[in-house]
Amino acid sequence: MLSVSGLEVSYGGVRALRGVSVDVPGRGVVAVLGSNGAGKSTLLRAVSGTLRGIGGAIDAGTIELDGQRLNGRPPAAIVGDGVVQVPEGRRIFTRLTVDENLRIGGFSRGDRVAKARTRVRVLELFPILHDRRHEPAGLLSGGQQQMLAIGRALMASPRLLLLDEPSLGLAPQIVTYIGQVIRAINGQGTAVLLVEQNATMALQVATQAVVLTVGEVSLRGTAAELARDERIRKLYLGGAESTARVLRSLAGARAQRNRPGRWVR
Ligand code: ATP
Question: Which of 53, 203, 236, 238 could form a disulfide with 227 if both were Cys (CB 3.0 to 4.6 A apart)?
Answer without folding.
Answer: 203
